[in-house]
Amino acid sequence: MSSKRKITVAYGDGIGPEIMNATLSILEAAGAAIETDVIEIGEKVYLKGISAGIEPRAWDSLRETKVFLKSPITTPQGGGFKSLNVTTRKTLGLYANVRPCKAFAPYIRTHFPKTDLVIIRENEEDLYAGIEHRQTDEVYQCLKLITRPGSEKIVRYAFEYARKYNRKKVTCMTKDNIMKLADGLFHKVFNEVAKEYPDIEADHKIIDIGTALIADRPEMFDVIVTLNLYGDIISDVAAQVTGSVGLGGSSNVGEDVAMFEAIHGSAPDIAGMDIANPSGLLNGAIMMLVHIGQPDVAEKISNAWMKTLEDGIHTGDIFHEGNSKKKVGTQEFAQAVIERLGQKPQNMAPASFAKGGDEGAGDLRLTKREPSKKELIGVDVFIDWKEGQRDPNIIGDRLRQVNADGLKLRLITNRGVKVYPDGMKETFCSDHWRVRFLTADESAITHLQIIEVLKQVMELGFDFIKTEHLYLFNGERGFSLAQGE
Ligand code: NAD
User: Domain of 389: which CATH number?
Assistant: First the structure.
């Protein structure tokens, strides 16, 4: 290769510097055509008073190189420090988190030796938008935001990934039997995009049974695509069942920049002892080499690494009498991998990575759509109320007086369950009431009518804490019905 690819590197905290040194020494010995630009992140930067944990110059480096190999960092205890990972993902638009989970049996203990799956997790949306509010004395809210472009981008990424890496099936996991609109959108977009990839099998599982199946029959999965929170949880379940939590690498990919790392943390308990396993970061670096179009070097390293495992040369965390032959430290393990460069594993399948690299946006076009016709037909007004022993008939009978040009109370729910009119006396009521106002024939209304409703609600002595408008989109209801509505 003629020219070297510049990458941004951060040595991180705890075991970070040791495993980065080990990883870079293997990359260099294998002939990776890279040149590193080192930036400072983590504890030292936090303690300088930079709450994001990354020095300002680092953004310029990342903008220039577009590739980030990152060691784990220690997030200082106490308030005021922002998660560096969340900041990096959001600032750089790293919308896809890719985590391969593969068994390396019998060299790494696992009950599921055939596991070889990849989890592709949406990385920017969902409950991780961090929009939370305390609304009443008793009730706290965290907003779950799912967008159509965000869903389409990650689903398309998963199908493109499957095609590129010669995988046969993509399974979508959601909870759309409950969250029919938000999770339902993700599932709907999945079904739409899947039609464009007839060569790849498409499947959907509800997240609860899906997680159970990962824990019990992981070999039935190939690529899994899912929402942010579910992906966070199932990627740890999947890593655990392969028995290789300490060995996994992951990538965070955006349209311009990609970040590669180990899935474990900075392990301060063993920092500086030269006993940490560098394999997680090495596997992250292997994903990076594929991404920047050096798959041959990635294969060479991956094969030498698997041969090292087969030869029983193991760090303490994976050392087991019987499977292991020699217990080694971090740098000695790296040396053993270097000595095996050019060799292939004899029992495990040799590595074979996609050619061509992943850089650039790839084929991630979004479907062009005409905006829907949006029609305002009502409003949900949320009220903080704890009087009258919380009898729904009291609040209901008072709010029945509200009338803004025909916009009137339709029903009241408490935690989503209808309590007025005709509620069940057994239903527990918190201090957080949702009052739905609609016209008799559910025809279009104006914002002024909503303002009039709020004025009358206030004049009746109620504390309204938020509103949600009720819209039709192309005639289709854009809000869920209450339980019992
Ligand atoms: P951890 O992953 O650092 O450690 C958990 C356990 O696994 C420890 O016993 C540790 O010794 C062991 N371990 C981890 N990596 C190992 C390796 N490569 N070789 C051998 N043993 C290894 O998790 P933690 O203790 O919960 O977190 C420690 C710090 O890391 C915290 O400050 C946390 O915020 C941070 N963290 C950072 C990242 C990241 O930067 N991506 C991810 C997770 C945690």
Answer: 3.30.70.1570
What is the model's pLDDT at position 176? 97
pLDDT at 362: 53
> Ligand 1 mean position to 267 CA, how many Å?
4
Query: Is 236 close to ligand 1, i.e. is its CB under 6 Å away?
Result: no
For residue 110, how far is its CA from the centre of ligand 1 (angstroms)?
A: 21
**221: which DSSP letter?**
-
Nearest alpha carbon to residue 348 among 166, 99, 107: 107
Question: Please, where are the H alpha helices in 40-181?
Answer: 43-47, 56-65, 84-92, 148-164
Q: And the tokens for 443?
A: 């025809």
Degrees, nearest 5: CA angle 183-240-102:
90
Ligand 1 centroid–CA 18 distance in Å is: 14
> In 413-450, which positions are buried (b, 16+ CB within 10 angstroms) versus exposed (e)?
bbeebbbbeebeeeeebebbbbbbbbbeeeeebeeebb
Whole-number pLDDT of residue 359: 61
Question: How many Å apart are CA 385 and CA 433, to the nearest integer?
Answer: 7
The secondary structure element, H or E, covering residue 290 is helix 279-291
Longest dimension (CA), the chain: 83
**Strands, E, within 136-231: which ranges?**
140-142, 169-174, 201-206, 223-226
Q: Mean pLDDT per segment of 10 residues, for the chain of length 485 residues?
A: 86 97 98 97 89 90 96 82 82 92 88 94 90 95 96 95 93 97 98 97 98 97 98 92 85 93 94 96 96 95 97 92 91 98 94 72 74 97 94 96 97 95 92 97 97 98 97 97 80
Q: Specify if 276 maps to a domain.
A: yes
CA dist., res. 418 & res. 427, Å (int): 9
Q: Cβ(465) to ligand 1 under 6 A?
A: no
As for how many domains the chain has, the answer is 3
- C-alpha 75 to ligand 1 mean position (Å): 11
- Is there an atom of ligand 1 within 6 Å of 88 CB? no
pLDDT value for 366: 84
Asked if 120 and 219 sit in the same domain, the reply is: yes
Record the pTM: 0.91
Indicate if 206 and 225 belong to the same structural domain: yes
Work out which ligand 1 atom sits closest to the CA atom of 262. 41
Same domain, 190 and 220: yes
Tell me: do 328 and 409 sit in the same domain: no
Query: How many angstroms does the Cα of residue 294 sit away from the middle of ligand 1?
Result: 29
Domain region containing 150: 116-241
The minimum-distance atom of ligand 1 relative to the CA of 279 is 18
Strands 67-70 and 5-10, how do they pair?
parallel
Nearest CA to ligand 1 atom 32: 74
Residue nearest to atom 43 of ligand 1 (CA): 265
264, 255, 281: which is closest to 124 by C-alpha?
A: 255
